[in-house]
Amino acid sequence: MSVPGLMPFISRVATRAYYRFTVGGARVPAEGPVMLVANHNNGLLDPAFVTVAAQREVQYLAKAPLLTHPYIGWLVRAVGSLPVYRIQDDPRLVGQNRDIFVEVHQALAQGAAVGMFPEGTSHSGPRLSPIKTGAARIALGAAKRIGGSFPIIPVGLVFRDRNSLRSEARVVVGDAFDWSDLAARSDEKYAVRELTKRIDEAMRRVTLNLDVGEDAALVHIAEQIWAAEHGSARDSEATVSRLALTASVLQRFRLRGDAEWQATARELRAHARMLRQMGLSPQALKEDVRWTAALRWMIMRLPLLLAVPLATVALLVYWPPILGARWAGAHNSDGPDSETTYQVLGMGLLGTVWTLMLSALAAWLGGWKIGFVTVLLLPSAGIAAALVSERRRLGWLAVRRFTVRHLHRRRLARMRTRQAAIARHLHELLEVGMQ
To answer: According to the CATH classification, is domain 3-204 in 3.40.1130.10?
Structure first.
C-alpha cells in the first residue's frame, strides 16, 4: 500500500495520540469529487485532522517550500502533496502553477477529494486570515472539466490549547454551499471574486474568529458555563457554534464600548480563577456527585492501580525520545504554529529509532528471539503507558473533585449560585447582542 493510501490511518494515530478531539457536523461524500477548505493554524497536523474528518483519502496542495523543507519535506512529498508556488517564495516559479492546477482539475474530474487551506499559510492568529483566490480558481477550472459544480465543504478546526498534550480539539464539517450559478458564468473575474467570498463565509460559520487572542479563554469559559447550566449538547458542532456566537457578540459589545459586558467579562474571569483553584470545571461544579457514585467509580478503576507500576516503567523507558520531541517542538524554526507538528513527528521518529536501538541491545544480550519480542512489545507498552497515565491523571482529578465537593460544600453552593447567575446574564446579553 502506498503512503498516501495509509494517510487516513496515520492521521488518526497522530491526532488522537496528541489531542482529545471530536468530529461533528455534516458528512463528507464517500466518493466523487469534493474540495475541502479548512483554516490553517496548526502546521502539518491540520491536513491530518481534515483527513480524519473526511474519512477518505485526500490529496493536498501545499506551498512549494514545504516540499523541500530539510526536516519535514519528505513527509509532505510522501503523502502525495502538490506544490503551489507563491510570489513571495519565488516569482519566477509562479507560472508553474498552471500545470499544477491542470493536475488538480484532472484529479477532481476523476472523483478525488482535494484539501486546501485558502488562507495560504499556517498562522497563529485568533481569526481567519484573508482568503486567497486560489481555491476559487481551481474549483471553477475543475467545474469546466466536470461539467458543473461539485461540493465545496468547509472544515473548521478549533483548539482549546493547541500546543498542550491531550488538550481539546474540535473539528466541524460544514454543509456544502451552492455555487452552480458561478460554475458556467462567462465573467471569470466576477466568478472568482464571488466564489472566494462564499468560501470565506462558509469557513467563518465553522471556525472561531476573535478580534483579540486573549479573548479565547473568556469565550471558552462563557461557553462552558452556558453548556453546563442549560444542559446543552457538547458535540463539536454545537460547541463551536456557541463559541462563534459568543465571540461575535463580544465583538459587537466591544465596538460599542458596552460597560455591562466589561463587568460580565470581569465576573467570568473571577469565576474561572475560582474554578481553577478548586480544580473544577463549570460542568463539574454543576454536578452533585453522591458518595455512592464516587465509591462505585473508584471500585471500577481498581484494576488500573495494578497497571500503574508497569506504565511508569514504560514511560521511563521512553522518556529520552519524549524529551527529544519536546525539544524539537520548542526549538523549531517555523514558528509557534508548527510546535505540535514537530513534537508529533519527533515522537514518531525518535520513538521508532529508540525502539530499534533497545531491541538491538536486547538481541545482543539475549539472542534474536528476545530482540524480536522486544520490538513487538515495546511500542504497545508505550501506548498503554500513555493511556494509563492519562486515566490515572483523570482519576486523581475525579477523586480530588469529589473530596472538594464534600469539604467545601458551602463555598461550592455559593459558586453554583454565582455560576447560575452568570449563565442567566450571558443569556440576556447574547439575546441583546443578536438583535
So the answer is: yes
